[in-house]
Amino acid sequence: MTKKERTLLFTICVIIYNIIIGLAIEAVLIVSLLFFLAENPKLAESVFTQVALPLLLLIGLIAAMSISVRSVGWAIRKFNLEDKLDPKVVSRYQKKL
């Protein structure tokens, strides 16, 4: 395999990983919000839900991106992929010291 083919395969795997991580985090946050609203029915009728849901989705998106960048960076270091992938892709996930 060439570097270009490995980079393409790596990028596809990262995309699938991002989708799975994002959906899992959003599902956990929404289910926790539903449990919280079930305990407090007066909050469910208020403006709280109109504000809380978009904020939870934004928090979930930021958390998923943060977890993804850190875990993909860890995988690149752990499996020594720096020289096997395109340097532009590797630099996107490596911390700059």
Account of the 3D structure:
- The structure is a single chain.
- The chain is mainly alpha-helical and 97 residues long.
- It is 81% helix and 0% strand.
- The model has no long low-confidence stretch (mean pLDDT 91).
What are the secondary-structure elements, in order, as H or E?
Answer: HHHH
Write down how many β-strands occur, each being a DSSP E stretch of 2 or more residues. Answer: 0
Overall mean confidence score, pLDDT: 91
Percentage of residues in helical conformation: over 70%
Percent of residues in β-strands: under 5%
Alpha-beta classification: mainly alpha
**Gross geometry:** rod-shaped
Alpha-carbon distance between the two ends: 31 Å
Low-pLDDT parts are: none
Largest sheet, in brief, is: none
Radius of gyration, in angstroms, nearest whole number = 18 Å
Summarize the model shown.
This protein is mostly helical and 97 residues long.
Helices and strands, with pairings:
Layout: H1 3-39, H2 41-44, H3 48-78, H4 87-93
Helix pairs in contact: 1-3
Quickly list its features.
mainly alpha
